[in-house]
Amino acid sequence: MTSALFDETFLRKLEQLSLVARRVRRGQFRGEKRSTRRGQSIEFADYRNYVRGDDLRALDWNVFARLEKPFIKLFEEEVDQSVHILLDASASMDFPPEPAAENKWRYARRLAAALGYIALTNHDRLHLSLLHGDAIIRRKPAHHRRAAHGLLDFLQSAASGGKTHLSAGFAQYAGQVKRPGLLFVISDFLSDEPYRDGFSALQQRGHEITVLHILSPDEIAPALAGDFQLVDVETGDRREVTINAALRKIYRQKFEVWQNGLRGFCRKRQMNYALISTDTPFEALLLHHLRQRHWLA
């Protein structure tokens, strides 16, 4: 399989990875994850003492013959994992303008594609959605590897634009999708709107949330100097500014307060959080940084 987002060599590397959840939920299809619930699959888990009423077919007669004590064989049940990816498709994500190597929209689409591809190759049930303005563009859920080509094509052609209302989108998604699971939010969070209520709605549905905060190096630490007219790509608002060392210091202070606020909120709510600069080599992000955090294995 080839794609404009990845070459064949990198796809092979992705196939060696899996998404890690703190807990595994009951699935609807038989997959490759192991539930803590005991079932009747072929994977042996443990023994327990026989009690009256147990199914005698689960009795280990070999152990009974050796020890003259009845033990019941326990098995782990194989379940699929539900994976949700919410990708912010607002206009601010398309910065700096392509073909810049550090374009956020391309980086974010590649990240969504990589996570989705990993999910599909592990037979997880994948739900991918774009948060675009007031709408949620949802792809039909898939859980087979054969859906990977469509996933990559969809993300390659996806366009950003307008202003996305993240909190409202989160709340809307929480009400639409009934089956909780691992949920990845990929966004720059460049919005003056609060996000707390939306995240609360997702957590109340039982989702295990990972926030992937995507920013360009120029947004994290601008190197500009001189007189500029800044234009908000989402609202069209303009402002004349003179950028010097003092203003850059103020910007950095305000940036740290803003970013630490989001990170602290996630930590308090037991949500995973990572700030990702688009100058981070993409292969290092997937094969090293996210694995170091034990979000991938």
Walkthrough of the structure:
The chain is an alpha/beta fold and 297 residues long. It has 2 domains: 8-25 and 80-292, Rossmann fold, CATH 3.40.50; 33-79, no CATH class. The protein is built from 9 helices and 11 strands. The strands form 3 sheets. Strands 6-5-4-7-8-11 form a 6-stranded mixed β-sheet, sandwiched between helices. It has a 3-stranded antiparallel β-sheet with strand order 1-3-2. It is elongated, with a radius of gyration of 23 Å. The relative contact order is 0.15. Residues 26-31 and 35-40 have low confidence and may be disordered.
Task: Write the H/E string, N to C.
Answer: HEEHEEHEEHHEHEHEEHEH
Structure class: alpha/beta
Radius of gyration, CA atoms, in whole angstroms: 23 Å
Amino-to-carboxy terminus distance: 23 Å
Total number of strands: 11
How many domains? The number is 2
Outline type: elongated
As laid out across the biggest beta sheet, the strand order is 6-5-4-7-8-11
Name of the CATH superfamily of the largest domain: von Willebrand factor, type A domain
Strand content: 15-25%
CATH fold-level label of the largest domain = Rossmann fold
**Which spans have pLDDT < 50 for at least 5 consecutive residues?**
26-31, 35-40
In which range does the helix fraction lie?
Answer: 25-40%
pLDDT averaged over residues: 87
Q: What is the level-2 CATH architecture name of the largest domain? A: 3-Layer(aba) Sandwich
**Sheet bearing the most strands, described?**
6 strands, mixed
CATH class of the largest domain: Alpha Beta
Tally of separate helices: 9
